[in-house]
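Hi P.,

Sorry for the delay on this. The queue was packed all week, but I finally got your sequence through. Input first:
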Amino acid sequence: MRSFRRGLLLLPIVVLAGCGGEDDYENSPRPATPINVTAAITDERVSVSPETFGAGPIVLIVSNQSGSEQALTFETDEIGGENPGVSKATNTIAPSGTASLQVDMREGSYAVRVGDQGIEPATVEVSGERASAQDALLQP
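Then the structure:
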């Protein structure tokens, strides 16, 4: 009976010794901190600010200042192929309404357009990766 009790006492030690023994674990750096990019849809054109920024996550905040409902599309020219591009769209935005869109940007040129062919699209240029948020405090 004593040996059985000793075995029960040693069991948790043996189990804990087998947990997590991998020494070569490497933390992946955090992505860049998301930035806010604004877009305004008017009856003449789509405007984006800033027009150039580094690759990484963004939050696109869209304001429809035109007189009709619009859906904004954010896309690269290279949809399909070996490196498929990005194509994201908002839901329909009512006049004087707003919407937001989260996009993880890669380097390249992007068109920001609406379905109305009379409204001129905007072009956004994305350069190399923004710095990691690894050492930034108070990040989610």
